């Protein structure tokens, strides 16, 4: 299994952006296979929708660094690791701006970019970017079309109901050919249909340890993933070429053994070949986060 880790982008780690390059370089030296960013904009005081089924927003979300800048910093500091987004909230961005940023990171990293996109869940964040949240699904579909055009054609032109790219010369294309792989995060039925129809892979999540009364996340993934691949096949696509990268979200009281056991079980029981660990609730500074990286890798690879 390839094992990655989230870059120091949120919470206490975000207050020390000078450590991003060192974290990325040393995580690569320790044997990490990938490094990841997410996309949080703000933490509402009185949220309409809380995080992960709760009524609140975690205090760690009050500090968030720009994902593209963090990823570009990591690209310049590393040579081998893949660089992923899980996820960029695509409907927030005009596709031309998103394509330019992602292309730049892919070129900086010599083709190591994994593009993970989603549609977000916070009404206040949509309000802040002046995009109607009710349009997020349609905007995501158009964004996927526009990105494909930007990356594979020249001149580029796209015209949709929400986004337009006038016919333009775009000579810079990603190092990944024909384009970087695009993964989608999804849970609702309509979003899962989009995954089957359009994505190169799916981005599921496992919360560790599972909340009281919640189903075992690895068992649930092992049960659901075959159905996702069947849906891919019904769309006339090759299920063997369809990927899944698991995001492991440890809570503040998760142990290294909890994390490592989840990684090992995900490979053995669900066939997951690539996963990454988010350290937002565990890392207080870069040194502590790197210590966790080392211990998780050692424990998971010894099993």
From TrEMBL:
<dbReference type="Pfam" id="PF00296">
    <property type="entry name" value="Bac_luciferase"/>
</dbReference>
<dbReference type="GO" id="GO:0016491">
    <property type="term" value="F:oxidoreductase activity"/>
</dbReference>
<dbReference type="InterPro" id="IPR019921">
    <property type="entry name" value="Lucif-like_OxRdtase_Rv2161c"/>
</dbReference>
<keyword id="KW-0285">Flavoprotein</keyword>
<feature type="domain" description="Luciferase-like">
    <location>
        <begin position="16"/>
        <end position="263"/>
    </location>
</feature>
<protein>
    <submittedName>
        <fullName>TIGR03619 family F420-dependent LLM class oxidoreductase</fullName>
        <ecNumber>1.-.-.-</ecNumber>
    </submittedName>
</protein>
<dbReference type="InterPro" id="IPR011251">
    <property type="entry name" value="Luciferase-like_dom"/>
</dbReference>
<keyword id="KW-0288">FMN</keyword>
<dbReference type="InterPro" id="IPR050172">
    <property type="entry name" value="SsuD_RutA_monooxygenase"/>
</dbReference>
<keyword id="KW-0503">Monooxygenase</keyword>
<dbReference type="InterPro" id="IPR036661">
    <property type="entry name" value="Luciferase-like_sf"/>
</dbReference>
<keyword id="KW-0560">Oxidoreductase</keyword>
């Amino acid at each position: 299994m390839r094992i990655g880790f989230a870059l120091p982008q949120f919470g206490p780690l975000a207050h020390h952006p000078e450590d991003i390059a060192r974290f990325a370089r040393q995580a690569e030296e320790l044997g990490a296979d990938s490094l990841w960013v997410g996309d949080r904009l703000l933490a509402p005081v009185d949220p309409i929708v809380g995080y992960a089924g709760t009524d609140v927003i975690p205090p760690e979300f009050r500090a968030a660094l720009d994902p593209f800048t963090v990823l570009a910093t990591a690209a310049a500091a590393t040579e081998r690791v893949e660089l992923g987004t899980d996820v960029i909230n695509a409907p927030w961005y005009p596709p031309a701006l998103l394509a330019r940023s992602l292309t730049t990171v892919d070129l900086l990293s010599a083709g190591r970019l994994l593009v993970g996109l989603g549609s977000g869940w916070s009404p206040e964040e949509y309000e802040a970017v002046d995009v109607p949240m009710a349009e997020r699904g349609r905007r995501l579909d158009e964004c996927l079309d526009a990105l494909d055009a930007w990356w594979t054609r020249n001149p580029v032109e796209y015209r949709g109901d929400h986004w337009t790219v006038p016919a333009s010369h775009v000579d810079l294309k990603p190092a990944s050919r024909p384009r970087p792989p695009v993964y989608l995060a999804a849970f609702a039925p309509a979003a899962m249909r989009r995954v089957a129809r359009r994505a190169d892979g799916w981005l599921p999540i496992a919360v560790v340890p599972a909340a009281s009364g919640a189903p075992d996340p690895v068992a649930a993934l092992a049960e659901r993933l075959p159905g996702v691949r069947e849906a891919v096949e019904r769309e006339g696509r090759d299920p063997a070429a369809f990927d899944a990268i698991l995001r492991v979200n440890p809570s503040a009281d998760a142990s290294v053994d909890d994390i490592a056991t989840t990684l090992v079980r995900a490979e053995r029981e669900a066939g997951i070949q690539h996963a990454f660990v988010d350290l937002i609730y565990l890392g207080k500074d870069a040194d502590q986060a790197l210590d966790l990286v080392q211990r998780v890798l050692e424990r998971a690879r010894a099993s």
